[in-house]
Design goal:
heterotetramer, A: 303 residues, alpha/beta, five-stranded parallel β-sheet, B: alpha/beta, five-stranded mixed β-sheet, 14 strands, globular, binds thiamine diphosphate, binds magnesium ion
Chain lengths: 303, 324, 303, 324
C-alpha cells in the first residue's frame, strides 16, 4: 500500500474515539513498561510464562496503544474492536497490556495466578473484565474471531477483529480450518498476528514440527500476508494500516520476533517459554530493563 | 400439573430432527439474533428450512466441527444466538475441547443441535450412532442438556434452549419416532414430566425410550403392575426433586435411554438416588458396546432397547424391591 | 521423473509378490466391474453412498489391481502395503475393491449395511477382515497413515502406505496437522490420494468452503504434489510410479474426478453423494454400465 | 490378599507423572515395540526420561493432539505399543473423536497418558485442570481407565497398561503427592484394593484422594468410626464385585475423586450400587464447576477435596444409614 492511502485511512479512522494512535516513540516507552510489568509480576507470582509474553510485548503494545478502538472503562462498549489472544498462556503480557491501558488497576498484576486475585493463569471471561472469551487450549482463537468478524459483517458493524497466535500454535489443525473459512468468506475485517518467535515448549519450532514456509501456507489459504520485524514499531504500524486497508481478504501479520526479547539471558531460549524468573534472575532482568523489583513493584502496587 | 399420556394403538410417527428444524424457523422469525451454522449436513440435520427462509443468517462452515463450535462462540460473544447443527458424534466428540473451553468455560450462549443420537440411526453404523453424548455433556460445567422424546418435544426444547441464557446441547435422532406428546403438552426446561402415574415403580426415560416406557407400562398393567413413567427430557440441570420423589413414592426405578450405560441418564438418576433415598434400580441402555449397521428396529431389539426389555427390567427391579 | 527411472523402479518392485501390476486395459475392465458392483449393492441395500464411490472407482481399481502389495488371503501378511480410506463413507467402493481382489466372497456385497452381514455402513476393523483401522469420522485417516509410515521407517520395512481422502474432507483441520507432520518427517513412503470430485454433501466444495488452491496448500505443507485426471489410467499409474520414486517428501495425488462418474444421471451431481439409486434408477444405471441388476446380482451371489 | 496401609505422620511426596515417566523407560528396556509420542510437553509429562534413553523411539508430534492420537493408532496398527502423553484436558477432549472412532472402535493397542488431572494442577487454572476425563473415557466402549493414587501405583499402572491388550487411559496429576503405597504393594489391573479395613462405611477413592481417604479414616477412628478404604485405581473395567461387597458389608459409601461429580468415579460406583445393593452414598468431588488458579492446597481446600470433607461426608452418610 502506498503511504498516501495509508494516511488517508488513518485520517478516516482517527475519529474513532477508542483509538490512541500513539507515536512510535511513545509506544517504545510503553513497551518497556510492559516488559517491566511482565518480569515483575512473574517474580511476584513465581509461576507463569516468560518467553512468549516478552516476544509479543512490542506488537502487543502497538495493538493496544495505537491500533485498537476500545474503551477500557466500558469493556462492553458496543463500538469496540474485538481482540483475542488465542495463545492464552501469554497472560503476563495480556494482563499488563490491559492494566496499562486501564481495564483494571496495575496493582492487580501483583496477584497474578493467585487464588485471591482475578487474574487466572489463562484468560478467563468469568474472572477478568475485558476478557471476551476464555482461552488456554491452543488453536481455538481464530475460529472465535471468525465468528465475531462474521457477526460484524452481518450487522454492518465497522469493528475490526484481531487475533494473536503463536508459531508453535500453527501446528493445531483448527487454525487451518479457521484460516480456510476466513479466506473463503473474505473476512477482511479480520487481522491475525503470529508471534513468530521460532520457539515452543520443546525447542525450535522447526525441530518440533516445522511450520515453514508459513507465509506460503497462509497465502494458499487465501489470506493477505505481511511479514515484518515484530520488534520494529514502524513496521508494526505500517502492517496494521495495510491490514486495515486491504479489501477482500483477511490479513495475517507474521511478526518475526525473539522469545524472551529484552532480557539477555532469556533471549531466544525456549527454556524460558513457561517458567518465571527466580527473584535474583528477575532482579537482573529488571536491571537490564532499567529498573528494579522494588521500584517497579512499588509502581504497580500504587497503580 | 402433569400431562397424562395414553397411547392409541397406532401412533403417528415423525422425525425429532424435523422438530428442531421447524423450531429454528419459528425462532428466526421471532428474533433477528438467531443464526444457524451447519457442518455440511444441511438436509440431514433439517436446518434446510432455516437456510431457505433466512439465507443471510445461515452459515455453512463445511466439514470442520471444531471451527464451527468456535465460530458459534464468536457469534455469541458478538451478541448473536447461534444454533449449530451436526451429528451428535461430531458435536460431542470432535468439538469436545472447543465445547469445554471456548463455549462452556466462557459460558457463551451457544446452542448445539446433535442429530443422529442413538443406535436407531441404523444402517450408517457405529461411527454415526452417537451414544456417549450424555456422559460427555453432563460432565462439563455450565452446559445444559435436553434429550427430547418426540417431534413436539424437540420443537419445544429448541425454543426453550433459545430462551435459556447459556450453552445448551439438544440431542435428537434420525428416524421417524412415535409422537407421544402434543403441541399443548407442558414442557419446562429443567423439569421432568410425569407422563403416567403409578405406584410400584418408576420408569425414567428420555428420547425415544419414553415411548417404549409408555408401552412397557401398558404391558406391566396387564400383569397388575402400575409403573409411573417420567419423561426426563432435561438431563442437565437434573430434576433431582422429582427423582427423589419417585424413589420415595415408588421404591424402585428403571431408567431407559438410547445411550451407553456408563454415565448416561441412568448414571445421573443413580447419583441422585443414592444421595437421597437409595432404591433398587435397573438400567435399560446400551451395554458399553459400539453400535452396528442394521435397520433401526432390528438394532433396538438387538441392543435391548424395546418395551419388552423395560418390562423385564421392571420385573427384575420389583423382585429386588420386595426381597428384603 | 524420467521414464527410464520409472521403469527401473517398476522392475525392482515387480518381485513383490502381492502386486498385480495389471495393464491399463485390464484395469479399465475391472473398474467397470467395480462400478457395476457399487450400483448393484446399493440397489440391494437401498442405503449408502453413490457419488464418491463412483468418482473413486478408477484410481481405486488402479490402487488395488496394480499398485498395492497385498495378499487378500492373508490380510495380516507382514509384507503387505497399508491402504486406508479416510473417507469411510465410500464403503460401496471399498468393499467392491476388496471383494473383487479376493478379501471375501463377492456375495457378501449383497449384505451391505445389513444386520446379518459383515459389511458395516462405515469400515469396521472388528467386522471385516482386511479393514485395518475403522473410519467414518472424516479427517482422521492421514494421521493413522503417518503412524504406519513412521513404524515402517523405524522397522526398516519397505511397505508403502496409501491414504484416500475426499476434497470436502480437506476442510478438516486434522488433515493439515497430519500433512504438516508428514512433510516435516519426510515420510516418502506415504502417498495420499485426494478424490477431487469438486462436490460434497451440501454442494460444490468451492461454494461450501473452498479448498482452492489445493495444490499450493499441499506444497506449502512440504509435499510432492501430482495433479492428474483421476479417470485416466495412464495418468494414474504414472502418478503412482512417480510417488514411489519420489525421495524425501510424501506425495499427494490430486485426482480430478467427477462425482457419480459412469452413471449419466448421477454425474457431477452432489445430490448423489449420500443416497442409493432406487431400483428403477439402478436398473437404468446398470444398463448404462452394460449389465442389468438381474445379471450382475446373479454374478455377485455366485461369487 | 490386600495390603493394609497405615500412614506415618510425615509421608514422602513424589509426582505421579514421574511414575509414568520412569515406567516408560522400564518398558522401553523390556520391549522394543514400545514407542512414546508427545505433543510439545516433553518435560512436564516426564516422557523426557524415555526421550533421552530411546531417542529413536521417541516421536515429537508438536501441538496437534488429534494427529498424535491418530499417529499412535497407526503405530499400533503396525504392531507397536505406543504411549502418548499430553495434558488430560487435551487427551480426553481435543482428541475425543479420534479416541472414540480410530482408537477405541478399532480397539487398537494405544496407551494414553493424561497428565495434569484434577484441580491440584494449581496456578495454570481451569483450562489445564482436567476434571471431565473419567466421565468421557468411561463412556467409550473398549477403553480402560486407570487413575492411580501415587508414584508407585502410577508406575505399576503404566506397566499394567502395556501388558493389557487394548486401549488404556491413565490419568495422573501434576504435583508432588504423598506416596501411600510401596514398590511391593499389590496392583492388579481391574481390581480395587482394600487399603484399610472397616465396618461402618466404605470410602472408595482414586488418585490423590486415596491419601485423603486414609487420613479421613484416621480422623473417623478417633470418633469411634471405622471406615474401610478402597483404592479403586481401575475405574474401567469396574470392580463391581468389590463395590457390591462393600455396600453389603458396610452399608454406606463415600466416594472421593478429584473430578467433576457428574459421571465420575462416584457415578460409576452409584451405578453399581443401585443395581446390586442400594445403600446411602455421599460424593466428595468437584461440584460441577470449573477450576481456577491458586496453590494446589488452597484449591483442594476450596473445592472441598480434603480429608475433612471426606469426614463430613462420612458423617452425613452414617446419619442416613442409621435413619430408617
Ligand atoms: C491444545 C493445547 N495443547 C497443548 C498446550 C500446552 N502448551 C501451552 S503453550 C505451548 C507451546 C506453544 O508454542 P507457541 O505457540 O510457539 O508459543 P510460545 O512458546 O512462543 O509462547 C503448548 C504446547 C495447550 N495449552 N493447548
Ligand atoms: C467428522 C465428520 N463430519 C461430518 C461427516 C458427515 N459427512 C460424511 S461424507 C461428508 C462430505 C465429505 O465430502 P467429500 O470428502 O468431498 O466426499 P464426497 O462427497 O466427494 O464423497 C460429510 C460431511 C463425517 N462423516 N465426519
Ligand atoms: Mg513460539
Ligand atoms: Mg468430494
Amino acid at each position: 500500500m502506498n503511504p498516501a492511502t495509508a494516511h488517508a485511512i488513518e485520517a478516516v479512522e482517527a475519529h474513532r474515539a477508542g483509538r490512541l494512535l500513539w507515536s512510535e516513540a511513545r509506544l517504545r516507552e510503553q513497551a518497556l513498561a510492559v516488559r517491566r510489568d511482565i518480569v515483575t509480576l512473574l517474580v511476584q507470582s513465581q509461576t507463569g510464562h516468560s518467553g512468549g509474553p516478552l516476544s509479543g510485548a512490542d506488537f502487543g503494545t502497538a495493538l493496544f496503544f495505537h491500533e485498537l478502538n476500545v474503551d477500557p472503562a466500558r469493556p462492553d462498549w458496543p463500538e469496540r474492536d474485538f481482540w483475542h489472544f488465542s495463545i492464552g498462556h501469554v497472560t503476563p503480557l495480556i494482563y499488563s497490556l490491559m492494566a496499562e491501558r486501564g481495564y483494571f488497576p496495575l496493582r492487580d498484576l501483583m496477584k497474578f495466578r493467585r487464588f485471591d486475585g482475578h487474574l487466572q493463569g489463562h484468560p478467563s471471561h468469568h474472572d477478568t473484565p475485558g476478557i471476551e472469551v476464555s482461552s488456554g487450549s491452543l488453536g481455538q482463537g481464530l475460529s472465535v474471531c471468525c465468528g465475531v468478524a462474521l457477526a460484524a459483517r452481518l450487522d454492518g458493524h465497522p469493528r475490526r477483529v484481531y487475533c494473536v497466535m503463536g508459531d508453535g500454535e500453527q501446528q493445531e489443525g483448527q487454525i487451518w480450518e479457521a484460516a480456510m473459512f476466513a479466506g473463503h468468506q473474505r473476512l477482511d475485517n479480520l487481522c491475525g498476528i503470529v508471534d513468530y518467535n521460532r520457539k515452543q515448549i520443546d525447542g525450535d519450532v522447526e525441530d518440533v514440527c516445522g511450520v515453514r514456509p508459513l507465509a506460503d501456507k497462509w497465502r494458499a489459504f487465501r489470506w493477505n500476508v505481511i511479514e515484518i520485524d515484530g520488534h520494529d514499531f514502524g513496521q508494526i504500524l505500517r502492517a496494521f494500516a495495510a491490514a486495515r486497508a486491504h479489501v477482500g481478504k483477511p490479513t495475517v501479520i507474521l511478526a518475526h520476533t525473539m522469545m524472551g526479547r529484552g532480557v539477555s539471558f532469556m533471549a531466544d531460549d525456549y527454556r524460558w517459554h513457561g517458567k518465571p524468573p527466580k527473584p535474583a534472575e528477575g532482579e537482573q532482568a529488571l536491571q537490564e530493563l532499567g529498573t528494579s523489583f522494588a521500584e517497579w513493584s512499588a509502581r504497580l502496587l500504587a497503580g | 400439573m402433569s400431562a397424562t399420556i395414553t397411547l392409541p394403538a397406532q401412533v403417528e410417527k415423525k422425525k425429532t430432527r424435523e422438530g428442531f428444524g421447524r423450531a429454528l424457523v419459528a425462532l428466526g422469525e421471532q428474533d433477528p439474533r438467531v443464526v444457524v451454522l451447519v457442518g455440511d449436513l444441511t438436509e440431514s440435520t433439517m436446518v434446510s428450512f432455516f437456510a431457505e427462509r433466512f439465507p443471510e443468517r445461515f452459515i455453512e462452515v463445511g466439514v470442520a466441527e471444531q471451527n464451527m463450535m468456535g465460530i458459534a462462540a464468536g457469534l455469541a460473544a458478538a451478541g448473536k444466538i447461534p444454533f449449530l447443527a451436526t451429528y451428535g458424534a461430531f458435536a460431542s466428540c470432535r468439538a469436545a475441547d472447543q465445547l469445554r473451553v471456548t463455549v462452556a468455560y466462557t459460558n457463551l450462549n451457544v446452542k448445539i443441535g446433535g442429530a443422529h443420537g442413538g443406535i436407531s440411526v441404523g444402517p450408517d453404523g457405529a461411527t454415526h450412532q452417537a451414544m456417549e453424548e450424555i456422559s460427555i455433556v453432563r460432565s462439563i460445567p455450565n452446559l445444559s442438556l435436553i434429550v427430547p422424546c418426540d417431534y413436539w418435544e424437540t420443537y419445544k426444547a429448541t425454543l426453550a434452549a433459545a430462551r435459556h441464557t447459556g450453552p445448551v446441547y439438544i440431542r435428537f435422532g434420525r428416524e421417524d419416532v412415535p409422537v407421544v406428546t402434543e403441541e399443548a403438552t407442558p414442557f419446562t426446561f429443567g423439569r421432568g414430566e410425569v407422563f403416567a402415574e403409578g405406584r410400584d415403580l418408576t420408569i425414567i426415560a428420555c428420547g425415544v425410550m419414553v415411548y417404549e416406557a409408555l408401552r412397557a407400562r401398558e404391558a406391566l398393567l396387564e400383569r397388575g403392575i402400575t409403573a409411573r413413567v417420567v419423561d426426563l427430557h432435561t438431563v442437565k440441570p437434573l430434576d433431582r426433586l422429582l427423582i427423589e420423589r419417585c424413589a420415595w413414592e415408588t421404591g424402585a426405578i428403571v431408567t431407559a435411554e438410547e445411550h451407553q450405560v456408563n454415565g448416561g441418564l441412568g448414571g445421573a438418576v443413580a447419583e441422585a438416588v443414592v444421595r437421597a433415598h437409595p432404591v433398587p434400580m435397573e438400567f435399560v441402555a446400551v451395554m458399553d458396546r459400539f453400535g452396528q449397521s442394521g435397520k433401526p428396529e432390528e438394532l433396538m431389539e438387538a441392543f435391548g432397547l424395546k418395551a419388552r426389555h423395560i418390562v423385564a427390567a421392571a420385573e427384575r427391579v420389583l423382585e429386588r424391591k420386595t426381597r428384603p
